[in-house]
Amino acid sequence: MVAKELLIDDTSVPVVVLYTYHYGQLGLLRTFGRLGIEAHGVDPHATSPGLFSRYCKKKFKWDVDAASSNDSVQYLLKVAKKIGKRSILIHTTDFGSAWLAENSNSLSEGYIFPKLSTQIVRELANKKDMYFLAKKYGVPTPEACFPTSTDEVSKFADEVNFPVVMKEMYRSGSPKFGKRMFIANTKSELLNLYRLHEDFSDPNFMLQEYIPGEDDSIWMFNGYFNEKSDCLFAVTGRKIRQSPIHKGVTSLGICLQNPAVDQMTRHFMKSIGYKGILDIGYRYDARDGKYKVLDVNPRIGSSFRLFVASSGLDVARAAYLDLTGQSVPSYKIVEGRKWLVEDRDLISSIRYHSEKSLTIKQWMSSFRGVQESAWFAWDDLLPFFLQTAIFSRKVLSRTDKGTLNPYRFTSS
Q1: How far is CA 153 from the centre of its chain?
Q2: Which residues neighbour 202 within 8 Å (Cβ) at sequence distance 6 or greater?
Q3: Are 252 and 162 in a shared domain?
Q4: Are 90 and 194 part of one and the same domain?
Q5: Is the dihedral of CA 213, 171, 21, 84 positive or negative?
Q6: CATH number of the structural domain spanning residue 201
Q7: How many domains does the chain have?
Q8: Is the dihedral of CA 293, 297, 301, 302 positive or negative?
Q9: Is residue 253 very low, low, confident or very high in pLDDT (cuts 50, 70, 90)?
Q10: Residues ≥6 apart with Cβ < 8 Å to 165
């Protein structure tokens, strides 16, 4: 079921979405297109599902992150001229957030977007910098270590309780490859993982205290902050299932009010002067009763369509209104609203069931309250069918090779 659509007085400013292969990017095309706003897609691959959306007005072939910075700027300025007017530009990757901040002056000729300092973007996107930033402003966060050698890993392992989380501090390379994260249950396992995955010439892994709890202990905040870093729209929610299980992105989520997470995030972002769309995750630590920040994404999150108000307002639409000089109306959170990523959740559910943490009855009842899914939409069916074909091909390929691995099935 599609949420009620927001009424906007002025829809004349187009939107350009960088990359269209992911369900979050497809959600952007749909959320603008359903309001009558021209939404255009830029992607290096002609088969990206979002390019087949009825709401993708024009399609441009370019890999913004892979090309040189100057070439990408010049290409996007040519796109702006083809569209015929300044457009709102939305980048959807970690790398792209910093790139957009670095090239904001050059791109301003053809585009509208929040002007955020490169330093703030990099500090938030880099988990090491974010850790110290959170500490500085009194935001609880799991204890962590940032090793540069196996000796430092060994020392940390002797001082903490297992399991321990090992994850990348900053995503590098192509945006189509997900973040690498591992959970080690013993010191020897942790050392082996570190030796296997770390690039010792440029260390990029951190070790983090593991906070015990089920998947539903992870809370999310989706919000939009204006030029003065005032929060104009915010909705909180909780994960029900993840992909990969226990450590991945939301495959099934629910909107629930959490005043503690809401107020803590508003204070944090106001303190650092953040502007624009924000996606942030916390984990509730039952040991001390605190919500501890895990990740800060200085960009739109892939699950943003979970966080839709009763009026149809979401972070993308709030940003559009503010950036085009229109007021963001008051809104009401839809308590209990659920959102689903079909392919991811299918594989995750199988894994949860195999470890005996999800029964068939629980699985069936978990869909009660789902109001929207990532791929399927009655008014925009082609991307769903394309993604279904892609997913089926991956399943058959892995099955034929005897390597059916649910962690490898991503929407990208």
Answers
A1: 29
A2: none
A3: no
A4: no
A5: positive
A6: 3.30.1490.20
A7: 3
A8: negative
A9: very high
A10: 142, 181, 182, 183, 184, 207, 208, 209, 210, 247
Q: Do the Cβ atoms of 347 and 406 come closer than 8 Å?
A: yes
Tokens of 180: 């690498």
Give residue 40's domain range.
Answer: 15-116
Asked whether residue 200 falls in the same domain as residue 302, the answer is no
pLDDT of residue 288: 94
C-alpha distances (whole Å) from 84 to each of 81, 166, 341 are 5, 47, 35
Taking the C-alpha atoms of residue 397 and residue 348, their distance in angstroms, rounded to an integer, is 18
Q: Which DSSP category does 52 fall into?
A: G
Query: Is 5 within a domain?
Result: no
pLDDT in tens, 188-230: 999 999 999 998 888 899 999 999 999 999 999 999 999 999 9
Whether residue 26 contacts residue 375, with contact meaning beta carbons closer than 8 Å, is answered with yes
Q: Are 179 and 221 members of one domain?
A: no
Buried b (16+ CB within 10 A) or exposed e, 15-41: bbbbbbbbbbbbbbbbbbbbbebbbbb
Residues 6+ apart with CB under 8 A from 121: 97, 98, 101, 298
Q: Residue 246 is part of a domain; what is its CATH number?
A: 3.30.470.20
Environment class of 5 (CB within 10 Å of its CB; exposed 0-12, middle 13-18, buried 19+): middle
**In this predicted model, what pLDDT tens digit does every residue of 381-394 receive, in sequence order?**
999 999 999 988 88
Residue that is last in its domain, among 183, 209, 235: 209
Q: Which residues contact 235 (CB under 8 A, 6 or more apart)?
A: 221, 222, 223, 255, 307, 308, 309, 333
pLDDT, tens only, 37-82:
999 999 999 999 999 999 999 999 999 989 999 999 999 999 999 9
What gap in Å lies between CA 405 and CA 407, rounded to an integer? 5
